[in-house]
Fold:
Amino acid sequence: MKRIDCLQAIYPRLEDCAVVTIMGAVAAELYSLGHRPNFFYLEHAMGLASSIGLGIALARPDCKVVVLDGDGSVLMNLGGLTTLARYAPRNLVHLVFDNQVLLSVGGGAPGGHQWFTTATSTGTDLAAVARGAGIRRAQLVEDLDDFTEAALDAIRGDELACVVARVEAEMPASFHMDVHMLENRFEFPRALQRIQAKTATGGRT
Ligand SMILES: Cc1ncc(C[n+]2csc(CCOP(=O)(O)OP(=O)(O)O)c2C)c(N)n1
Structure:
């Protein structure tokens, strides 16, 4: 299963959500499908996408929050899972793309260094870790149909959910992103205000 196909499958459904991605390959691939102002690309703060998502979800219970994460990032902040479970916002969905490596730092090139593998390559099951942390609805999916069903169900649902998707370690076609961090920092909260306005007026803005 390729991460880009997973993102493509849920992309239309992300229109009215607050979307937070970890930096690197996930962010670049989401951007390549078409930037939207309700997408926040969290740069540098590896491991903290779910923490940012948690804050937004608690502050904006009327808004569905979707966090797009990587296995290396989640492993850097495992305590984030216990905090998610503790507050369990019903409007938060945590989608983790597990490619078993730190893809965004590169590797695997002929003559270059090998991939930096993560603990999921040696047996750590992040969905089981999430369940152990107290997130009741946490599952591992291994093919695109299962991912699409689980992710869309979770977004439609009314319960904290975590979906861990086993994906190939494939680089995005490009890392090009023409959205400045500061621009994104200001446009994102404005986009969330519009989502609120839409909800409050029953769809009329
Ligand atoms: C605190 C911190 N350490 C290291 C980095 C460098 N870094 C950027 S992306 C990345 C790998 C992210 O791995 P993962 O979450 O598995 O996502 P993938 O790149 O595989 O899609 C690393 C180590 C960083 N940005 N911040």
